């Protein structure tokens, strides 16, 4: 029985170091029979965490949890990197439902327990923001394909559209005169991208439920695409025949494409995408800069999805 329990927000007395995620410790503890993992900071049980390691571990140093949860993009809470952590305290992600509709045989609404029951795995993925910074994050989630299988997409469905919640009363970035984006934030994938085994809906990171600033309670993760595809706090998923709108593409189509595959050879019009700054990481010669890889290093897994496509035209 899966019951979603938000991880308590740690008190300020907990040191940054103590809140670092020590993955191997947690997995080792999980392997000890009968050992309870109901430590106050862990919302997922040992079985949920350790039963199904998801693979794809890039074997790179994890970004510190404190960095991944304090340096964020989530414009519903403001445009500054510190805004999502500082200004999301009023956001209440429980209870929650995700409506799945459109070109499917069995439209459905999933509550958080139903989503968890699709089978949580840990996936350590690189994430690369279009702003040329990157992190390595241990996500907890389930393959989006598992959810899509439940609703039985029709043969005519070609795309998957995603939508974020609109709650100006809880999201200060959606109030006031200056509105940086049109709400709701929307994103989309081709159906074959959505079904790819790398594509997950995440409900947690570092062994805990997602903090509000990272997209509680459920968000998309597509590690071979720029971070803006990773739409947060999803309330609706719609299968469509036509390519759906995506927020950044609609705002500035010459700067942000629909595909948004990480590509060091296609620069943003205003900056290079050839190198990235690994947040908090120690790179060459004391610098945190490292070369960006095609498809963010996931080319072996995903390049075949784009065979025959001009990736400079379809950026
Ligand atoms: N709803 C919504 N989703 C969003 C964003 C946003 O502003 N609103 N920002 C995107 C961008 S630009 C990035 S880089 C990632 C950042 O995810 P993280 O803060 O968990 O690292 O979220 C993406 N998802
Ligand atoms: Mo981003």
Number of separate helices: 9
Q: Major β-sheet, in short? A: 7 strands, mixed
- Estimate the helix proportion, in percent: 10-25%
CATH architectural designation: Alpha-Beta Complex
Approximate strand percentage: 15-25%
Structural class: alpha+beta
CATH class identity: Alpha Beta
Q: Superfamily at the CATH H level? A: Oxidoreductase, molybdopterin-binding domain
How many β-strands, per DSSP?
12
Q: Which segments are poorly predicted (pLDDT under 50) over 5 or more consecutive residues? A: 12-42
CATH topology: Sulfite Oxidase, Chain A, domain 2
Listed once per kind, the bound small molecules are:
ligand MTE, molybdenum atom
| Coarse morphology | globular
How large, in whole angstroms, is the Cα Rg?
Answer: 19 Å
In round numbers, the mean pLDDT is: 88
Total individual domains: 1
Topology overview:
Elements: H1 23-31, H2 46-50, H3 65-68, H4 83-87, E1 97-102, E2 108-111, H5 112-116, E3 121-128, E4 133-143, H6 144-151, E5 159-164, E6 186-190, H7 191-195, E7 200-205, E8 208-209, E9 219-221, E10 234-240, H8 247-251, E11 275-278, E12 289-291, H9 299-302
Parallel strand pairs: 1-10, 4-11
Antiparallel strand pairs: 1-2, 3-4, 4-7, 5-6, 5-10, 7-8, 7-9, 11-12
Bound molecules: the ligand Nc1nc2c(c(=O)[nH]1)N[C@H]1C(S)=C(S)[C@@H](COP(=O)(O)O)O[C@H]1N2 and molybdenum atom (MO).
